[in-house]
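Final report, Chapter 2: Outcomes

The project's central promise was a pipeline that accepts a single protein chain and returns its three-dimensional structure in a standardized token representation, suitable for archiving and comparison. That pipeline is now operational. To close this chapter, we reproduce one record exactly as it appears in the project archive, with the input sequence first and the structure output second.
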Amino acid sequence: MTRSEHIEWCKARALEYINIGDPQSAYTSMVSDLGKHPETEAHPAIMLGMGLMMSGQLSTPEAMKHFINGFG
């Protein structure tokens, strides 16, 4: 699987949690899945997302969906 294909797979899985209104699990899923590919395991958005989560900026499903869809 290419890096791009892997990221799309990660996004699709994370967005399943958005669809049930669980942004925290969406982030956890995204980070966990990114770690499963050598080209995405150290993606810079992982740390960015942690900071945004801790400051409450990703606490809604809408905010988290925007963040997840921004991965590339």
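Archive annotation: The CA atoms of residues 52 and 58 lie 6 Å apart.
This record, like all others produced under the grant, will remain available to the consortium after the project formally closes.
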